[in-house]
Amino acid sequence: MAQSHDGGTTWTQTKLVDGRRYFFAFDAEVTPDGTVLLSESSFAYTAPGGAAGGKVKHHVFISRDQGVTWQNIVLDTVKLGRPCETEGCSADFHSGHNAVSADGDGDLAYLYDGATVAGGAQRTWLRTSTNEGRMWSGRTRLSPAGVHTTGPTVEATGDGDYRAWFAVQNASKRWNVLYRRSTDGGTTWTPPVKISDASSGADYKNRNGFLEFYGDYGEIAITNQGKTVAAWGEGFSWVGPGNVWINVET
Fold first, then answer.
1. Checking DSSP bridges between strand 36-47 and strand 51-63, what pairing results, if any?
2. What structural domains and CATH numbers belong to the chain?
3. Which of 96, 89, 247, 72 is nearest to 173 (CA)?
4. Which of 42, 71, 123, 243 has the smallest count of CB within 10 Å of its CB?
């Protein structure tokens, strides 16, 4: 990781891990007390042909001293999920996504995807912390039962106000993006609402959803008026073409 403490004039780089696993960096957060958190996943590309094998680990790197030292916590270890099958897609494309956010009190929400059976449908899981990541809750499932899911995002504000979306694949192999909100620190959540609700505008879309989750990243934000903004990618396949779609709470 790289850090600057003079407004970006100078930077230092620090190696956080040194090993044989491959890391994907997804999200970052700074709590009100200055704790820095990075959410990342790691893979072992040791299967035949250099493919992903074994399990996916979901990490949070934490610094409490302005980046001088870092703690690497493995929050969960999950199985590689259902392989991606669209044009150009590697089998592990839908696996290993995570996100982290802190509310105004520094309480944390960490979302991630993963399967409980190798090659099975992934779930979106939630873990929370009320002490800046020193201790974490057990995992709870945020995605509906019986669907394959990927790409979760989360943003927090106020006191325990968490907003999240994730993509789900239905029985017809079409994708949709679902949104949920918690106002009690992740204890309870609103029912899932489909926010990828445009049924036209591109040939890869119809009323059942879109063909492929496009790109590795999506985002969610909360405006100064408390409204949620969500952005994600949709496409024909991994190679595209595709587009970024947004939905804004009214």
1. antiparallel
2. 18-248 (2.120.10.10)
3. 89
4. 71
